[in-house]
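Z., the sequence and structure:
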Amino acid sequence: MGAWGVLIGPLGFAARSLRRRGFHSYLAFLGLTLTVATTTFLLLLGQDLASRLGVDSSMRSTFGISWLIFAYLVLALGLIGIVGLLSTSYLVSSMISQRMRDIGVIKAAGALPRRLLAYVIFEALVVIVSSCFVGGLSALLIYASWSWPNVSLYKQVGPIANAGATILIVVPLISFLLSYMVASFRVRRIVGASSVSAISKQLTNLDLKSLGKPLRIKWLGSAFNLATRNVSRDRGFNKTLLSVGICVCLSMIVLSGALVSANTSASYVVRAMPPNVLIVANSNVYNQYVNLATSFSTNAPLSSLDYTNTSYIITPQNASAFRSIPGVESVDTRLITMSSITGFVKAHFAGNQDTGENINTQIIPEADTGTTQALIVGINATSVVGDWYTSDGFLQSNDMYTMIAGDSLVGNIVQMPFNLSQVGAFGYRYDVKSALVDPLNAGRVLYAPVQTVQKNLGVTGYNVLLLKVSSDPSVLPAVSKLAGSFGLLVGSQDPILNSNLAFLNNTWSYLFLIPILALALTCGILLSYLATNFSRRFNDYVVLKVLGANVWYRLRLLLWEAWGVLAIAMLIAIPVAWGVSIFFLVPDPSVSLADLELSTLVSASALSAVSVASAAIYSRRLGLTTVKDLRT
């Protein structure tokens, strides 16, 4: 930079100014570089995970759970982008604010406003451009080393073609444009202000009314009292607290949202396939049912089967015999079959998209939505063992030609609203009542009253029984003995449930990289925030050192200031983040108290470590300063 300092003009001015400010220039550069690099890398990682797991299109499981995972991923990456942009604007604004008095001095010395504006903006641009370039390049190198040799920059994720390359260009570009706009706005305001106002920046940043009313707690020592005094007289404290609070809150939403979404998706599977359930069927039907139930998590091909073969049918009398076994709590009688179905949207009056009112002058004719193969399950609504998550409830005992659609059929064969949707099967029309999340046949399933399915197929009886049993170990031998007398096979549903949950847990184990790294991103950004905040009171700290404050006292002072800001932000942000995750993120959420406590503890520990690190780093920097380093 020494060679550039001899130049005359904006470049020479920028080189001399940045060199003179030394540590503070590097601090601004590192803060912006870290923000751009981590934000870009996390977005690249997110699109890579979406592409590898196929959560937007080809992912195994049901449409509902795939959409829940994809929606969380989009939300998380969106919030990470907001945190990055917010941090960029705050750091640039703080960088310019630290130059306010210097600009006032130059203006008072007779510099023309237009030339001064060009010089100062060019100095900011040197930091901004270099930060965006180095940050984007660092993100690319980190991402390439992480994903090597399967670097994916040109795959489509959702509606975005070449998602990786787009992120690599757009994020640094937006960061540059936002930084330039903030810098230009702040510099124009400073240059437009009077020289006296700019030079007296240090006093105008102090809230002198609050100078004599800091929070004082004797047993915490004089360092705590001085820290509260410094904070109480800082007019920029509210701005810093707001920025820190928003970053912490959004990062906590990413973390808590992952925990809530993971628990909720698992609860959907458990509710559809509860534990302590025995499957009773003919061996051929049993094996087919196991394949159907595990199609959520595996790609095993389904063989063709005559589900209504008379040798597979369980008579009502034989089914009732299982109810008399001690420990059998309920018997879910099912008649399953694979059939071709056709979707329809009934003729209806055109509706006003804004008000929902009917426009009686126009009738939209009936529409065919397509044909596909689906599993149809005839079920007795009064004795089901599942407790599915549904959009509008399950079947009732008085329902006849009514179906509940699996979530993977919604949006193509089954259209919304459901009161206009019908499904054609076995030569009959069924009204669609609602949709449910079900792993069976990967969500390509329809539930209908068993009496109606029996009538349509000309069958009396069932081909699958699900027995909800107690944990008494004597139940399984008793059920197996009775089933064997009927030529039936018995097996537990628990291995199927565990296989599906293992698949979900494996998927979420990859996605949990996002909230963990997002928390690391926030810690890095907050480290820059706190260091920048310390720089505003650099002269005060140097004077304290000159007056005899030892290393331990200075460290405690910085620690109280840093931890105080983060503690206040966490007290507000963490409950808000949990409230958003629980009440607004997913329908019918499943919340674990242990997860709530764990995420709060991890976040509080990480952010507390940031306060310690920032205080230690800046304390070490102060240890290298002398009275000559006072900024004039």
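The longest strand covers residues 328-345. The chain is about 60% helix and 15% strand.

Let me know what you think.
H.
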